[in-house]
Structure of Septin-type G domain-containing protein:
Amino acid sequence: MSYSMRRKNLVSELNLMVAGYSGLGKTSFIRTLFGTLKLRSGPGSLKNKASAAQMASGTSTPTTEPTSPSATTSGGLGTKANGTKDSVGYATGELERTLNSFEALFEIEESAEKINLTLVDTPGFLGSDEVVDAHCDEIIAYLEYQFDLTLAEERKVRRNPKATDNQIHACLYFIDHSSTRPGLSAADIRILQRLGTRVNLIPVLSRADTLTRAQTKKLKQAILKDAALHQIQFFQFLSPKLAKKLLQQQGGTEDHEQKKKRNSRPGPGDDEEAEENGEGEEEEEEDDEDEDEDEWDPETLEEKAHLQSLAPFTVIAKEEDVEIKDKQGKPVQGREFPWGVLNCFDSDHCDLSSLRSALLSSHRQELKEITFGYFYEKYRTEKLLARTKSQHLQFQQQQLQSAGSTASLNNNNKTALLKNGGTLTPKESMLSVGSGSIVGPWEE
């Protein structure tokens, strides 16, 4: 098979999750996005993923096959193992409140590329802090379960070359802007700090049709300020290194460069310490030469800078069960108001079009690379270190138990010797007195 034929038949995996408080339009967002997808095949052709096991706060063991989280949960969070047929029905049928997490699987084509797209819809956070934290535990367990699937595959003697990529490549976190205080709530901060250790976070402002441009600008600034204050790392469309390169191409001043660095906070994989301190400049120059030239293309950098300036992204979901047409009479996904028609994919109305392009096209590969190279490797390291520590503690316990049994046996022998009229040597007397202190395995 020729290289062009292999490229034609190559299928990429992309797994996205939506999360956030209840009632923010997460399911409506998925249904709106589905209306723009070009399906490669009819319903029911895509098999269920192994990751369709149910979410819960359980753990998994990667030694052989991962153990999926248990089926029942206290918060009612569970994944229904549905294929493309049910997924299409879910995206086009009657809109209902999401009570169980749902994996919607679609075979799509985007820019002449084949993609197996998984959209994970999760129930909204609701209730007390304890309930919200338990809900977050379940989502974390689900994310880690996907890593365990990869870890189990890597430990096989013969790996499956067609193994499915189950890792969640990005989590779109929907932020409620109805609060009197603009920015992130205390619960949002707590959730984002935890989710940010396992997945790429992309902040989203839903129901943007209720916001003016001034309110939107104020909200975005407040959210980014809170994220920086609480060390929450959102996905960086334009890293500090790329921002520096863009400014060099544009001939920007040093003051402008410093301002750009502050606006583009470092994310996973960036050498922020070296850059802030002016260290490692020679290494950066060497790395620049090794990078793909397309990455340093001015047009590409401009696109990355534009996407970075949009975050958090404003989105608007289409109006359900109503056919909307623009001024030219062309059907659009949007909402109709007394003053006119709102198009969900008009960049003048919201950022949904830019977000869609970034997820499905321009930044799809980057999201996957960071997921595997940073988040998975971090989890894998933590898992193996924890396992090594557990084995070491188990070995110590066995050594202590063995030493304790030997000391008890020696004491019994000495007692029997004394009862029979025998005597102890000075060394035996010292050991008898010190028998309460068990010698550790690191001492002779």
Q: What stands out?
A: The beta strands are 11-20, 102-110, 113-121, 170-175, 201-205, 313-314, 324-325, 331-332, 334-337, 340-343. The chain has 14 helices and ten strands. Residues 243-308 form one domain.
